[in-house]
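Q: Hi! First time doing this. I have a protein sequence and I read that you can turn it into a structure. Is that right? Here it is:
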Amino acid sequence: MADDAVFIAIESDGPRWTVKADTLTAGSGHSVDDTVNDAARAAVTRLIHRHEVGADAYPGPV
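A: Yes, that's right. Below is the predicted 3D structure, encoded as structure tokens:
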């Protein structure tokens, strides 16, 4: 938070992985462009089709 950076966490739960990004740590002026959201969604969709992540993977902001 002191560096106004986005916090990224990668977690393993057995054979599955979770990637989380917290933009609140980047400060109030930080925003995520639609291009970034589209790229993340496309990457998760590819992982689902390759059965590398579960079909319940959620590729969007919460």
